[in-house]
Every structure is written in structure tokens, then in C-alpha cells.
Design a protein that fits this description.
single chain, alpha+beta, binds adenosine-5'-triphosphate, binds magnesium ion
Length: 632
């Protein structure tokens, strides 16, 4: 806010200052113009004086009586010719000199100052320089510093007789003294200072001017011929002076005219006051406007911003009280509205989330049930297969049993007949077909042994497959696991599928044996199911460079179409008819292999066959080895 103030007031102050300077300059200019006019007026006064004296000179020149009187030293007569010219004229004094330049009579305005002198005691002469000049030229006009701080404007005229003889001289003086200066001061309303050609003060209208050192202005005013200006303070009053050269015959007077700046300064001061008052007023208005703006504009905005920052639509929408009906009121109202809508959306979202969560948990339950039923199905299938497998050997053991019972009955009868005599024995042997019994009995026993062995093999295979006693992680031979699985599947594959195995030497693998067996079972079952009629399965077990045991199971089945390849590991993806497959076999297998830190890859050619490559680290999933060592 303060920056705003500074930025707004600074240009205003600059403009004000600039205008004041310009205004002061204008005042000075006006003063100079006025003084110039006055100087010209003064100049014309002096010119008038000159004309006036010239006219009088002509009269003196034309007065033969005057020349004669002077020439003949008739002072009284000469004097009587001129003395009437002095009273009530501008001329202060008139002096008559004889042809030698000696003063003979003086007439002044003041009758007491007028004097006639005898030639003997006369001691005042025109200077030689003046006389020389007057010999050349009859008229001479000069200015001189007069007595009593005044300037004398002097006009000297040489008088001649009719025969051009020098008769004497008339000198008239107009005195620019205190009275004159006082008059000028009154008439023009100005102070006036008269300087000589060197710029030294001779006379002035104000008594204080006499106090200045005579040479004080010589540097400023000197160099006659051009106008100069200076400022001077007289009794605390500021004055502006113009100095103009004014010609008086052969001399040049420097006339200084000064006007008081008091008035204009006063006006300037008033203007200053006006400007500064205006600035202060504007400043105050600014401050008030900013305070008002802070109250009315900024505070509601901050309140709104605070509310937005703190906004937590937990227990209900955020409501900011609407205190004004300005735009901020509208803004606050729309914020409240927005907050209400956010709250409503949040509630709907929460409801949806609860629904989704419930749906998810339902789905999980369904999945668990499905997995369970899938397990039951595959278990059922497996049990059916195994039952079938067991049924054969047990069936023929069972059917052998009736023969064995029959044979043992017959043998018992033969033995009993033998106790009665040889004839009865032979007769009974014949009757019971003893020779056939003897021949068939070992075959029957061998067949029973075979059936019993096959039954035992199946049971051992089942036990090994489930490895129930080995649910913990343990080093096992994958070769054995695959062989056991094959045994369980032999019923399905028998007579239809030729299995080629190639087991390289691979160290025992640290794993959950039953789980890996389930993987082999799933993949081999799929392979068997993919083969329509007769076909082949190739199993290759080896160790790769990364210390992994790799099992490749390849079949000559129908293969998997390209679009199916991406989906086969998805749960419930199946191409089999209902009851045939659940689509979980490969997804479960994938999970098992990944848990073992391994990988399953599949390659397939439709119509030619499919290859699954299962690889698992020999030392089990990460961390398993250390765990196993600890336990051991
Ligand atoms: N060796 C294979 N040859 C051709 N198709 C295969 C092969 N193995 C798997 N499949 C395809 O992958 C699908 C998914 O197999 P998966 O084992 O996951 O389920 P399923 O065999 O259909 O059912 P389940 O294994 O639960 O009885 C199969 O339906 C089949 O289309
Ligand atoms: Mg399957």
C-alpha cells in the first residue's frame, strides 16, 4: 500500500516541483521585461536632457552679446545674458569660462550658489584635455561623478565671435542627484543605481546602496555595452536588477534598475502553499482510499482466501457469512454455493466408494469360491483319473481272485482225493484240469503281483506328488517331480501320447515341491488336452547360465491363436467348454512360479504346437537360501 502511495505521489510532486521552477522562471522573465521597458524610459529621459541642452547651446552660440561680453571680460554683461535661463529649468548650474578656460561666473538654481569671480582670484579652469577637445569640436558632452553622490551630465559649448574667434565657454550641468533618483524611484516605483563605466557605484536611490563598497559590483556590471542582471537583497527584501548602458555624449553611464520580487515571491509562496496543500490533500485522500480499499476490498478477499485455504468439507459445506451486497458478497455467495456442491459431490463419491468396496469384496469372495471349486474340480478330475488307474490293476487282481479261490478249492479237493488213494487222486486231477491250474497259477500270481505293484506305484506317486509331508521349502529334484506327475497322468496319455524326456543333470532346487508339481501337472494336462487324438510331448530339463533350472514342455497340439497368447495367464480365461476347464490352471501356475522368483514363457504356432518354458532359481526365491540355512 505504501509503495502504491509513493508511486502515485512521486509523479505529482515531480510535476509540482517542475511547474514551480517554471513559474519562478516566468516571474523572472516578466520582471526582466518590465525592467527593460523602464530602462528604455530612463534612456529616453536622458536623451531628452541631451536634446534640451543641445537646444540651449544653440541659443548661446547665437547670442553675440554673450560672446562679446565674455571676450571683453564684461562678466556682468555676459552673465545677464544667461542668468534668466536657470530658474525653473532642469539645469542645476551654468558656468561661464573666458577664452583661457578660466571660470568667471556661475549661476545656480540656488541663488546663493551663484558667483562672479574676478579674474585675479579665479582659480578654476577647464581642464586642458577638455579645452583641447573643445578646440577641435565646439560641443562637448560628458558625464562625471558629481559632489554628494550624484552624477553630473555636463554640456560644454565653445562660443565664437562672428570672425570665428574663441570668445569663451558655457558649461551647463544637469545633476542626477538624490532628488532626481528619488523622483525616478517614485515615478517608476523602482530602485535605481548609477554606476560609472568601470561598474563602480556612484549614486543610488536607497540609502543602503551607499553602504556597499564602491567596487563591489564592478565584476558583475563592468564591461559596459551590454545588459546584465543580478539579484540583490535590500533590507531582507529580494530585488532583481537590470543594468543597461546609457550613452551621454562621450561617456556611458551604467544604470541599474531594480524591482522588488517580494510580491512575486509572495505569490510564488502562495502557489507553493497551494501546491503542497493539494499534494497533502491528495496524499490524505489516497491514505483514506487505501484504508477504505483495505476494509472493503482486501479484507473480504483475505477472508475468502483464508476460508478457501482452510476449507475442509468434512462435516458439511463451508459457509462464509455474506456481510456485503457488493461484488464480494456475490463472490462469497458463489464460493458458498461451490462449497455446497463440493460437499454433495464428496458425499456421492463416498457412497460410490463404499459400493465399489463392497463389490470388490464380493468379487474376492466369489473368486475364492471359484478357486476353491476349481481346485475341487481338478481334484475331482484327478481323483477320477487315479480311480480309473487303480481300477484296472485292482480289477484284474479282483478277477484273478475268483480264479485263485477256484484253483485253491480244486487243489484242496485234489489233496483230499490223494489221501483216499492214487486212483481217486488221478480222477480228481483229471476232473479239476490240474495241469492247467499248475500252468495258470504262476501267471495269475504274477498278474496279481503286477496289479499290486501298479497300485503301489500309483499310491507312491500320489504321495510324492502332494508331498504333504514336505509343505515347507526344501531342496528337491525337479526330475522326480516331473516323473511323478507323468505317472499320475499316464492313464490319460497312455496309448495316445508319446512322451520324450531329456533330463540333464540339474542340482536339486530349493522350492515348495507340491506347488511346482502342480505347475507341471497343469501344463502337462493342458498339453495333453491340446492334442487331439495321437501326439507327442517333449520335456527338457536343464540348467541355464543364470543358475536357473529350466523345464521346457512342448506339445504337438493345436497351438494358441495370437489373440489368445496375451490372455492365457489371466484368471478365468479358457477356451474349454463348461465343466472342462475353469481357466485358472495357468494363472495359478504363473503365481506359483513368480513366488519362486522364476518366470514362465510361452511360444506357440497354431496347428503345430505350444512350448511352455518354466525357469526357477536353483537357490529358490530371494532370501529363501539364507532362511533355509538358518533352519538347517
Ligand atoms: N498347451 C496348450 N495348447 C493350446 N492351448 C493351451 C495350452 N495351454 C493352455 N492353453 C489355452 O489356455 C487356456 C487357459 O489355460 P488354463 O490352464 O489356465 O485353463 P484351462 O485349461 O482352460 O482350465 P483349467 O486348467 O482350470 O482346467 C486354455 O483354455 C487353452 O485355450
Ligand atoms: Mg488347464
Amino acid at each position: 500500500m505504501s509503495w502504491f502511495l509513493v508511486l502515485s505521489l512521486a509523479p505529482l510532486m515531480f510535476v509540482t516541483g517542475y511547474s514551480l521552477v517554471k513559474y519562478e522562471q516566468a516571474i523572472d522573465n516578466e520582471l526582466v521585461q518590465r525592467l527593460r521597458g523602464n530602462a528604455r524610459e530612463f534612456e529616453s529621459t536622458i536623451e531628452d536632457y541631451e536634446k534640451y541642452l543641445n537646444a540651449r547651446r544653440e541659443r548661446y552660440k547665437a547670442d553675440p552679446m554673450l560672446s562679446f561680453g565674455l571676450l571683453t571680460n564684461a562678466v556682468a554683461q555676459a552673465r545677464s545674458r544667461v542668468e534668466g535661463n536657470i530658474p525653473n529649468s532642469s539645469v542645476a548650474s551654468l558656468s561661464l569660462f573666458n577664452r583661457d578656460g578660466q571660470l568667471v561666473a556661475t549661476v545656480t538654481q540656488d541663488p546663493r550658489g551663484a558667483k562672479d569671480r574676478n579674474l585675479e582670484d579665479a582659480s578654476i579652469y577647464l581642464s586642458d584635455a577638455y579645452k583641447k577637445q573643445l578646440d577641435k569640436d565646439a560641443d562637448m558632452t560628458v558625464a562625471e561623478a558629481g559632489a554628494n553622490k550624484s552624477v553630473d551630465l555636463i554640456a560644454i559649448t565653445r562660443l565664437e565671435t562672428k570672425t570665428n574667434r574663441n570668445a569663451g565657454y558655457v558649461e551647463e550641468i544637469i545633476n542626477l542627484g538624490p532628488q532626481f533618483l528619488e523622483n525616478v524611484k517614485k515615478r517608476l516605483g523602482l530602485e535605481i543605481i548609477l554606476f560609472n563605466e568601470k561598474g563602480q557605484i556612484i549614486a543610488g536611490s536607497h540609502p543602503d546602496f551607499a553602504l556597499y563598497d564602491k567596487r563591489m559590483f564592478s565584476k558583475t556590471v563592468g564591461g559596459a555595452g551590454s545588459e546584465t542582471f543580478f539579484d540583490l537583497t535590500v533590507r531582507n527584501e529580494p530585488y532583481g536588477f537590470i543594468v543597461t548602458p546609457v550613452k551621454w555624449g562621450q561617456s556611458t553611464l551604467l544604470v541599474g534598475l531594480g524591482a522588488s520580487k517580494q510580491k512575486s515571491k509572495g505569490i510564488l509562496r502562495n502557489v507553493n502553499y497551494a501546491f503542497f496543500t493539494m499534494i497533502c490533500a491528495i496524499g490524505i485522500i489516497f491514505v483514506m482510499v487505501s484504508i477504505f480499499a483495505t476494509r472493503v476490498v482486501v479484507r473480504p478477499v483475505y477472508e475468502l482466501v483464508d476460508a478457501i485455504q482452510m476449507m475442509e468439507v468434512k462435516d458439511g459445506p463451508v459457509e462464509i457469512p455474506v456481510t456485503t451486497d457488493t461484488e464480494f458478497g456475490v463472490l462469497t455467495e458463489s464460493f458458498n454455493d461451490m462449497s455446497r456442491r463440493i460437499y454433495q459431490t464428496k458425499m456421492e463419491l463416498e457412497k460410490k466408494i463404499t459400493e465399489v468396496e463392497k463389490a470388490y469384496s464380493d468379487l474376492k469372495d466369489a473368486q475364492t469360491r471359484l478357486v476353491h471349486s476349481a481346485k475341487m474340480v481338478s481334484l475331482g478330475q484327478m481323483v477320477a483319473g487315479i480311480a480309473h488307474e487303480l481300477n484296472n490293476p485292482i480289477g484284474f487282481i479282483y478277477s484273478n481272485m475268483s480264479h485263485l479261490r477256484d484253483y485253491s478249492e480244486k487243489l484242496k479237493t485234489i489233496i483230499e482225493a490223494g489221501e483216499q488213494g492214487k486212483e481217486a487222486l488221478e480222477k480228481e486231477k483229471q476232473k479239476a484240469d490240474y495241469s492247467y491250474i499248475v500252468e495258470d497259477l504262476p501267471r495269475l500270481i504274477a498278474s496279481c503281483e503286477d496289479g499290486a505293484r501298479r497300485t503301489r506305484d500309483i499310491v507312491i506317486g500320489l504321495r510324492n506328488f502332494s508331498r504333504l509331508e514336505e509343505a515347507k521349502i526344501k531342496r528337491v529334484s525337479l526330475k522326480e517331480g516331473i516323473e511323478n506327475t507323468l505317472k499320475l497322468l499316464s492313464g490319460e496319455m497312455k496309448n495316445r501320447i508319446q512322451v520324450h524326456t531329456h533330463f540333464e543333470v540339474v542340482p536339486d532346487v530349493l522350492c515348495y515341491a507340491s506347488q511346482l508339481n502342480q505347475v507341471f501337472m497343469n501344463i502337462l494336462t493342458n498339453a495333453a488336452q491340446a492334442i487331439d487324438g495321437e501326439g507327442e510331448i517333449w520335456i527338457h530339463l536343464y540348467k541355464d547360465a543364470k543358475n536357473k533350472a529350466v523345464v521346457s514342455i512342448k506339445d504337438s497340439g493345436k497351438g494358441i491363436a495370437k489373440e489368445g497368447l496375451d490372455k492365457i495367464f489371466d484368471p478365468f480365461y479358457t477356451t474349454k467348454s463348461v465343466g472342462q476347464g475353469t481357466g485358472l490352471g495357468l494363472s495359478i501356475s504363473y503365481g506359483i512360479v513368480k513366488n519362486h522368483g522364476g518366470d514362465i514363457q510361452v511360444k506357440s504356432d497354431t496347428g503345430k504346437g505350444t512350448e511352455f518354458i518354466i525357469s526357477v532359481p536353483i537357490d529358490g526365491p530371494p532370501g529363501a537360501l539364507a532362511e533355509a540355512n538358518k533352519k538347517a
